[in-house]
Design goal:
By secondary structure, the chain is α+β, with helices and mostly antiparallel strands. It folds into 7 domains: 38-112 and 282-353 and 448-516, FAD/NAD(P)-binding domain; 129-266, Jelly Rolls (Sandwich), CATH 2.60.120.260; 360-433, no CATH class; 535-544 and 565-726 and 782-793 and 841-901, FAD/NAD(P)-binding domain (3-Layer(bba) Sandwich), CATH 3.50.50; 735-775, no CATH class; 927-999, no CATH class; 1001-1167. The protein contains 31 helices and 37 strands. The strands form 8 sheets. Strands 2, 23, 25, 26, 27, 28, 29, 30 and 37 form a 9-stranded mixed β-sheet that branches. Strands 3, 4, 12, 13, 14, 15, 22 and 24 form an 8-stranded mixed β-sheet that branches. Strands 5, 6, 7, 8, 9, 10 and 11 form a 7-stranded antiparallel β-sheet that branches.
Length: 1167
């Protein structure tokens, strides 16, 4: 008999938190805010991002099947997935295989569990030399003499292949007659592009008389694309010979062949036995199939969204959800809800009645791939007659260890599940492992009371009553998860993927029918209630007006209400990446009660989850030295990694262990979704979890989101893409292999404040890298939203080696800009590749006007062109440690962030080795004495030497520059001073500049857009003159600039277009409108906006470092913007900008919308 437990109209997070708070109050552990069950949230409006028939909450395989079927039955459907992928029930738990007897019957299930093409196991081959009867293509050429087909490498079509554009004959010399048993060709395959049909193999002892010994036929042409591992094509060949001839033929439809390796197997060689147990598919295969199913069905969906509240209509019935994500909070209005969350999050927001969660010792399953199995208390290794094994791209098999864990669970709160995840990793992680479950799997021990309970054994997906998935007395809601009203044994069977999807499809069809019978929703709102909170303050999130997708969206009212308090800490660190994990460790070591909130399930950011697991640059001292030494202690360095690289999984685990040692509470799978603020002081963080939304109160927040998410939500003024420019450093999202190594990509731009752009990036990347084992879950952005802090560091400060009294880290790098620069100093004198040490002041971490919060990483206060010198991983690691130390000191003293004893902090950091003792006596080296400025002005004719000092103190320098212009003894010197003055908006020498531009008959060599590996100039000398001439705003500038514009074609370099546009929009002369419109209409220049996912996939670049797509889009945007600011011509500029205002790339949309807020004919603002 089930025992049910009702929580009337209370959010279950609120209940769990109140129990914990009451216990602590009784014990006298805490007083004041913690004893408040909730904090107040004022009434507000929430943007509606979708108004649909059916909303599916969750991204499981069953959720996707439900969404697809609902759409097939005529419903308009929206799906909110909590992770950056679909299929978390399969991929998150690593349950990637079917058990014996499970046979997929639907098209979706067959695609998800289609056996992968056979991968070559490690092969032993006779050494040989070879020749070809024709040269290899230059695209994938062989060495001289040829060697790549016998080098033992066959796991990358782009790097480890030889291309032949037609049939080829290869003759091998084995050195002496040898006894053989088999021959093989290892080849890559892309349908219709590169395919091997067959190879005829002959043997000889003299290269004259040949006898056929084998025909190798490709039996896997229907296996699809195979690019990240070579596909073996075997044939037995029992022969003794010195020479072998391979006549390799491509298919008729193929354009070429990409050969990886030839194997000549000696007699008696032993191959690794192929695994005979269940065979896992790759995470990529599952995730891609689910993506494609939703796209094909026309279902709107987004990743990274946690359902936080339940909407209701004027009759009190469920009417949709509120969700939280990186863009803030939004509403999805829906007639019917399918709750496909793991533990019935939406159902628990209603009056649904659940059985009591038992607590105590509970069973979880954890999967680990590879390595030696572990044993210990509370760990049981599953036994199979035929073990599951995963195969890597080299063909090596790795045992999949299935553990059953007994874990103590105090209650069903998110905090308890977060703790269980860490216990599972404590018990099962090994340094040899290659992959593992993100989260331990559990069949929920509790269930809800339904309209019709299903008792006994699992009846089958086609027979189970759908009323068992509908909570009693709750309308418009289906619950598709293990909390359904089934026996727990039946629930376990339900959660097997094929059953789950089959039941999901049935529920999707029923939900569509239910939605059709519902009238139009009226009075939809987020209902409020009486607020019992005594804590003073207000919850805040980033407003809809700051997001390009929601600025003009319809809204629903959210009434005044209370938000659950989940706990209280001294320090809360949001983000466990490059800066966040060190910050949490530092705070914990300082004795602060610390919580780390991390959305993903690993730590270390770009250097671990982002797979850029190598130091390019940085000042490798202090805490960074400790990290590096700690990795060396884990075990011998893997030979796959260079001296400055590391095993990403080891580094993540090192961070995790150090946090555990320091007593840090870790909440993975949680999102910092806002702030709790009182009178400008941040007093807490709003947290979205798989179980809903609550507030964690704290004395200090360290915002290590890399995107200033918490600071922005709290009301900090931030700097980001706006009307002035669309410059942003390049972004990547890497493929991931089993046993991944360093993988650095840069092929797109992503606005991480825009959940739609994040979705576009992941959908496109999975299609782009679809043959990989998996896709990374962290977007490798190099530039994000930044605070405007108490101090903003600039390239001028960096070049001038400026010192400060409050230095907290000293960074080191060069200008690896990943795109073009915008600072006028670099337009005059391009950045060099030399190392620069940069002093970083504490004030860069302080959001102007806010107390109780520090910001780290890419979110600090800095000019965008200053970021390359301070974003290197060693420096962000040290910066994070400094921030965590400072936060703990502030929390301990109970002081304001600006009242921190900086010298005490510096002494702590000196002891750690992060800072030298010299910082204790350093002062601000600016302003410079006037004689230094005068000296700098006198040296400018020497390739702009000293320009950083001139730009640092422009008011003092301008009179000196005008004087130098008047006294210049040569045209060259006069042009230098005129050039600088014009760049500063002073037209004193504009006539000379106009003459210089007019005197050049043709364009010089420009710069094509380049991101990865971009160093030095991104403008040509003539570009620089034109930009400066435009900034002078002198009327004489127009004609020579237009003359150069008339010379441009679609083949001209990007920098020339940018220079013309910057100059003409500064002038704002209507006479420039027609020439700009003519440029914009030239073939190949317009039409590059990407306003839907189909277009994004068509334009998906093949290369992981592509530049072309970004270059063409930026060129079109610049032209449209300049045209609009010059008064437009036939509405072309506005039309183009409006297309980009709907672009899926958030930066393009944000920029275009900002420009359109201005009136046509309004020149660019003076800089």
């Amino acid at each position: 008999m089930k025992s049910y437990h009702r929580i009337p109209r209370f959010h279950f997070l609120r209940h769990a938190a109140s129990v914990a708070a009451s216990a602590l109050c009784l014990l006298g552990v805490a007083a004041g805010p913690l004893c408040a069950k909730e904090v107040p949230e004022s009434a507000r409006s929430l943007p509606v991002v979708a108004d649909v028939d059916v909303v599916v909450v969750g991204g499981s395989s069953g959720a996707v099947a439900a969404a697809v079927e609902a759409a097939k039955n005529g419903a308009k459907v929206f799906l909110a997935a909590p992770r950056h992928y679909l299929g978390e029930d399969i991929c998150g738990s690593y349950r990637l295989w079917l058990e014996p007897g499970e046979k997929p019957t639907t098209e979706l299930a067959q695609e998800m569990f289609k056996p992968a093409p056979r991968v070559a196991p490690p092969l032993s081959s006779v050494k040989f030399t070879y020749t070809a009867n024709k040269p290899a293509s230059r695209v994938h050429k062989d060495t001289a003499p040829p060697s790549l087909l016998g080098d033992g490498k066959y796991s990358s079509s782009s790097k480890e292949s030889v291309q032949f554009d037609d049939d080829v004959t290869l003759v091998l010399d084995l050195g002496k007659p040898q006894s053989l048993q088999a021959v093989a060709i290892l080849a890559y395959q892309r349908i219709g592009d590169f395919e091997v049909d067959k190879a005829v193999v002959s043997a000889s002892d003299d290269r004259k008389q040949w006898a056929q010994v084998a025909v190798i036929k490709n039996e896997s042409l229907d296996a699809g694309t195979v690019e990240d591992r070579a596909m073996p094509i075997f044939a037995p060949a029992a022969v003794k010979a010195r020479y072998l001839k391979f006549e390799v033929k491509k298919t008729e439809r193929a354009k070429r062949m990409l050969l990886a390796e030839i194997v000549v197997e000696p007699a008696g060689a032993q191959r690794q036995a192929a695994p005979t147990g269940p065979r896992p598919v790759t995470p990529m295969q599952v995730k891609l199939a689910l993506d494609q199913a939703l796209l094909k069905a026309g279902v709107q969906f987004l990743y990274g969204c946690y359902a936080t509240e339940l909407l209701k209509d004027n009759s009190g019935y469920p009417a949709g959800i509120v969700m939280a994500n990186r863009s803030g909070r939004q509403a999805v209005v829906a007639k019917t809800i399918i709750d496909a969350t793991e533990r019935g999050t939406i159902a628990r927001m209603t009056d649904a009645v659940f059985t009591k969660f038992p607590g105590g010792m509970m069973t979880f399953n954890q999967i680990v791939v590879g390595g030696t199995p572990v044993a210990g208390k509370g760990v049981e290794l599953g036994k199979r007659a035929e073990p599951v094994a995963a195969t890597d791209r080299k063909g090596e098999s790795h045992t999949v260890h299935e553990y059953r864990l007994r874990v103590p669970m105090k209650d069903a709160s998110f905090k308890s599940f977060a703790a269980a995840e860490q216990i599972a990793r404590d018990r099962t992680w090994t340094k040899e492992q290659l992959d593992a479950s993100e989260t331990p799997f559990q069949v929920p021990p509790d269930s809800f009371r339904s309209k019709e309970a299903q008792t006994g054994a699992w009846p089958g997906a086609d027979k189970v009553s759908l009323d068992a998935f509908r909570p009693a007395a709750i309308e418009r809601l289906f619950v598709l998860n293990g909390c359904a009203d089934l026996s727990r044994e039946a629930a376990a069977e339900l959660l097997r993927p094929l059953n789950f999807m089959d039941v999901g499809a049935r529920i999707g069809k029923a939900a569509a029918a239910a939605a059709k019978s519902q009238p139009k929703l009226e009075g939809v709102r987020l209902p409020g209630g009486e607020v019992s909170a005594k804590a003073k303050g207000e919850t805040r999130e980033v407003g809809a007006e700051f997001n390009p997708r929601t600025a003009k969206a319809p809204t629903v009212p959210a009434e005044r209400r209370g938000v659950t308090v989940l706990g209280e800490y001294d320090v809360v660190v949001v983000g466990g990446g490059t800066g966040g994990a060190p910050a949490a460790i530092a705070a914990g070591r300082q004795g602060a009660k610390t919580l780390l909130i991390e959305y993903l399930h690993q730590f270390g950011g770009v250097g671990t989850v982002g797979l850029i697991c190598s130091y390019y640059h940085g000042n490798r001292v202090g805490f960074t030295s400790e990290i590096d030494a700690g990795l060396e202690k884990i075990g011998p360095k893997d030979p796959r990694f260079k001296s400055n690289a590391w095993n990403a999984d080891w580094k993540s685990e090192w961070y995790r262990r150090e946090m555990r040692k320091a007593g840090v509470d870790i909440w993975c799978g949680a999102l910092g979704a806002g702030a709790f603020v009182e009178n400008g002081r941040v007093k807490g963080v709003t947290v979205a979890t798989p179980q809903g939304r609550g507030v964690v109160l704290t004395k200090m927040v360290v915002d290590s989101t890399g995107n200033a998410d918490i600071a922005a939500a709290a009301g900090a003024t931030c700097r980001y893409t706006a009307e002035d420019d669309v410059a942003v450093q390049g972004t990547g999202l890497p493929p991931r292999q089993l046993a991944p190594g360093y993988t650095n990509t840069d092929y797109t731009f992503v606005d991480e404040t825009d959940i739609t752009d994040i979705w576009r990036c992941f959908v496109s990347a999975r299609e782009k890298f679809k043959t990989a084992y998996d896709l990374g879950q962290l977007i490798d952005t190099r530039e994000r939203r930044q605070i405007v802090g108490d101090f903003t560091i600039t390239p001028v400060d960096q070049w001038a080696c400026r010192t400060f009294p409050d230095t907290v880290v000293i960074a080191k790098s060069n200008y690896d800009t990943h795109g073009y620069t915008t600072h006028p100093m670099f337009t005059l004198r391009p950045p060099h590749k030399q190392d620069i040490f940069v002093h970083m002041p504490y004030r860069c971490l302080l959001p102007r006007g806010l107390d109780g919060i520090l910001v780290t990483g890419l979110g600090v206060s800095a000019h965008r062109d200053a970021i390359p010198l301070i974003r290197m991983q060693p420096d962000v690691q040290n910066q994070g440690y400094a921030a965590g130390t400072a936060a703990a000191m502030i929390a301990r003293r109970g002081c304001a962030t600006r009242a921190l004893d900086i010298k005490a902090l510096q002494r702590t950091l000196i002891k750690k080795g992060i800072l030298p003792e010299s910082v204790l006596t350093e002062t601000d080296s600016f302003p410079m004495p006037n004689d230094k400025i005068a000296e700098a002005v006198s040296q400018l004719t020497n390739d702009f030497s000293g320009i950083e000092l001139v730009l640092a103190q422009q008011d003092a320098a301008k009179p000196l520059l005008r004087g130098a212009l008047d006294k210049a003894g040569s045209d060259k010197a006069k042009r230098v001073y005129a050039h600088i003055l014009a760049m500063l908006g002073d037209g004193a020498g504009a006539g000379a500049l106009a003459q210089a531009v007019a005197a050049t008959a043709a364009w010089d060599e420009g710069w094509q857009f380049k991101a990865m590996g971009q160093f030095g100039a991104s403008t040509s000398p003539l570009d620089s003159l034109i930009i400066a001439l435009g900034r002078s705003r002198d009327p004489r500038a127009l004609e020579p600039i237009l003359a150069k514009a008339r010379l441009l074609t679609a083949e001209s370099e990007f920098s020339h277009f940018r220079a013309i546009c910057l100059a003409l929009e500064s002038l704002g002369n209507p006479a420039a409108a027609k020439p700009l419109a003519e440029l914009l209409q030239k073939p190949g220049i317009g039409g590059h906006a990407v306003t839907n996912i189909a277009a994004a996939l068509v334009k998906n670049p093949a290369s992981g470092t592509d530049n072309t797509g970004r270059g063409t889009a930026l060129r079109e945007l610049f032209l449209a913007r300049a045209l609009y600011r010059c008064g437009d011509c036939g509405g072309l500029g506005e039309k183009t900008l409006r297309a980009y205002a709907e672009d899926l790339h958030g930066h393009y949309a944000r920029h275009a919308q900002a420009v359109l807020k201005q009136k046509p004919g309004q020149p660019a603002p003076a800089k």
